Design the sequence.
């Protein structure tokens, strides 16, 4: 992977401002989010930089970043536009441009109107938020108090935005997306999908040939979801894309930009009108939590059971005590009995059962930490069972098991066609 | 908050290297993690910078960062020490120091031994990982293939580490913590706790006086947990700390570095030997998932019910159909019936009930999106009910409701004393 921009293409730098960032109190998510949008437009980000709320430090950061992206480039700046004396970004840009700060009357009126609407007095400090460097172009806001602004220095277009991620996204859509699209060399139609059950490096190996052939390929591990998000700049119908699809096989679990595995499973169940009931042991409710994150899921998901103890597996799901005694709770037969019990007791079309050892304790030579049994009962008489040895710590095992379970539901439904 | 180092104190900068970072494919978590450690030692980080795998860009980033921290300062560099031609950090540091790269025989032998252990041939490219700039001090590794190294330039101590976060943490403990502790002005004993149900800015206001008095205060919103982590550099028994405790009251929900709200609730239940059963509607299993993230929780948590539909509230919890019909699912009476049903049917000491509207649809004028009713039945005859209007999108409402529910369990148990 090369980070240098190709000849004639705009280089972009991102500067995020806030003492809380360099003190490690807040993770800078704006830089990665903005970079992802830029890459999508075919623009090349060559720099992320965070600096504290200190006038000298901000001026140096901006000056060096303008130099680094060079004439024809773009600098995106977020943060430091709040109302307090700590918020120095507008002062730093004014100093850099050699322009005084001026009051922007419409922005002041916007802030006053916001306070009036919530029946509060506007503190005097909020007037600061209506100041912009003379000559800068104001980017009006509808999502907060502070406006953004745009200015040019040494041939570099500088966009200055408020720091809250929600506001950054709004400014991107409203004010940045269009002019930056015009600067980018769009890498063409994108095919976005997610994979499950395959590590990022194994994925990189499988996509290497495609990448080496010049196709833009991006992937990002999503530790919270147990999946990897992949974007390939090819139409999904291109033969090379089809080859990737064939190679990835069942690992490809959701398609479409921003579509999670839970979204895909939810849409599939809703489309087929198949009601699901879940029975979770080692995942402790994570499958239910993933599914209920999907708006509208109530059409097909009406209950989930977290049967953590043996007693609860008997009470809630009718898993036979003799089976639990003879084979222990972590085996395929118990997962299957859980899946059937969940389905039958809820009168659902599909039941899911998960039982495993998330650790850190509880592992044995025969049944090590990370061993998880899955079963899906239904639709109809079908029953699918799966055994996996998952790597990672307790949280990673729980998340990966939940993703594997969602994927198994997807496969069970699709194979029923 | 000021980001400048106080007189005579080492300034620190962090440079993370990798095209995947500036392309937005991978979130840079090393910088925030390292900064948090530095702040803990009383050191001041003044710069985060990420740059692509490009020799010129890395050299410029390092040179400017050395300048920014200045003589007596420290530069931490992560990433770009892999075996491929993309990995150029060691070349960039060598260029910066004006020293050639030299093969470090013990590091080569370490890498060869690793490959031998896994019975694989070492690719020739891995020899690159044993190269270090002449004169640099090698930091041996036990967690990967590439060693780190340390060197000095213009009075700045530079530490270069491999990029994987797991390796960064190991190198910190083994090689960096001690020398950097010696450079820091430790801010003294730390009192770490978490808060729930109070926004970060409201928290900042309450802690402002303490911070203004010169006490080091840090706080970080934990969006995934619905809590804010706070560290105050005072002994918990200090009168000023006691005043904070009194001021925060019930918002202070967990104490100890790294102790989450779920950890605190789990420990409390285990200590009192109180068994809990949960019944969740709008949180969809998130309370159960939080609790089962705590190792050893099976001693007190044996089941959780996700009763998403009205029918499941009747079937699983015995909530009366007439109540659901007369008042709807989102009201205090239903939350109370859920809590009692969960407790009684599980034979537990405590039952939790949650019902609300997570959105985006389903809200009305009377019952808007974000309205959540909570109830805890037990221990004994006690019953606590709570109503909250929570801000945010669907995910934020679900997470905040789960955190509020955990906190209510804590308060119910503590008030039973």
Sequence:
């Amino acid at each position: 992977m090369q980070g240098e921009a190709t000849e004639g293409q705009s280089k972009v730098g991102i500067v995020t401002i806030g003492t809380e960032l360099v003190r490690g109190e807040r993770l800078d998510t704006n830089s990665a989010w903005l970079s992802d949008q830029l890459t999508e437009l075919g623009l090349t980000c060559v720099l992320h930089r965070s600096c504290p709320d200190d006038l000298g430090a901000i001026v140096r950061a901006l000056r060096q970043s303008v130099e680094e992206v060079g004439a024809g480039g773009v600098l995106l700046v977020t943060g430091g536009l709040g109302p307090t004396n700590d918020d120095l970004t507008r002062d730093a840009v004014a100093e850099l441009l050699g322009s005084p700060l001026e009051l922007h009357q419409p922005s002041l009126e916007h802030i006053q109107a916001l306070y009036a609407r919530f029946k509060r007095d506007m503190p005097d400090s909020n007037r600061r938020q209506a100041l912009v460097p003379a000559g800068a172009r104001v980017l009006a806001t509808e999502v907060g108090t502070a406006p953004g602004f745009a200015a040019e220095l040494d041939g570099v277009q500088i966009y200055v935005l408020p720091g809250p991620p929600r506001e950054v996204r709004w400014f991107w859509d409203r004010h940045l997306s269009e002019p930056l699209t015009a600067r980018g060399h769009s890498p063409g139609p994108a095919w976005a999908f997610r994979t499950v059950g395959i590590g990022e490096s194994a994925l990189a190996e499988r996509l290497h040939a495609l990448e080496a052939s010049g196709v833009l390929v991006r992937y990002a591990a999503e530790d919270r979801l147990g999946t990897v998000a992949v974007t390939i700049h090819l139409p999904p119908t291109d033969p090379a894309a089809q080859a990737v699809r064939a190679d990835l096989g069942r690992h490809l679990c959701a398609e479409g930009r921003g579509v999670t595995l839970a979204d895909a499973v939810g849409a599939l169940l809703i489309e087929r009108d198949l009601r699901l009931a879940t029975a979770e042991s080692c995942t402790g409710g994570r499958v239910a939590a993933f599914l209920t994150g999907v708006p509208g899921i109530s059409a097909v998901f009406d209950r989930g059971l977290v049967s953590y103890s043996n007693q609860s597996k008997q009470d809630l799901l009718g898993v036979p005590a003799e089976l639990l005694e003879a084979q222990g709770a972590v085996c395929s037969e118990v997962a299957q009995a859980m899946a059937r019990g969940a389905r039958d007791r809820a009168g659902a079309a599909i039941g899911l059962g998960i039982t495993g050892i998330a650790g850190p304790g509880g592992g044995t030579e025969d049944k090590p930490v990370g061993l998880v049994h899955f079963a899906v009962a239904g639709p109809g008489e079908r029953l699918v069972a799966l055994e996996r040895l998952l790597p990672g710590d307790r949280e990673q095992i729980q998340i990966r098991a939940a993703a594997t379970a969602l994927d198994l539901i997807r496969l069970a439904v699709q194979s029923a066609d």
